[in-house]
Amino acid sequence: MLRSTPGIGKGTAATLIAFLPELGTLSGKEIASLVGLAPFNADSGKQAGQRHIKGGRQIVRRALYMACVAAQRANPDIKAFCDRLRDKGKKTKVAFVAGMRKMLTRLNAMMRDSTTWNPPKT
């Protein structure tokens, strides 16, 4: 099921299966937080700090980053999403992290529903 997604190869699929057995059992927010793709705020008192990703399973995050890079060529939906963020002025890595989270939540839903990749309708 995972390999049906454009941008997900053998290595990424193996990494997700081995290091993320919870895939398909948690909600989108929970799985993103578990991997470390949910924004973490650094607020203190009245000071509003920057949001950044922190913690989580680093090996899964690295595999998803490379999958997002590959998806820029193979997956027109993720490419359009990242391009839209870059057009709004976001940095490339910020757009890729958002793309990683989108890929992860879709993979989570695919595993939960036991479905293969269905490209979105345009």
TrEMBL record:
InterPro entries: Transpos_IS110, Transposase_20. The lineage of its organism: Bacteria, Pseudomonadati, Pseudomonadota, Betaproteobacteria, Burkholderiales. GO terms for biological process: DNA transposition. Pfam families: Transposase_20 (PF02371). This is Transposase IS116/IS110/IS902 family protein. GO terms for molecular function: DNA binding; transposase activity. Residues 2-81 form the Transposase IS116/IS110/IS902 C-terminal domain. It comes from the Bacteria.
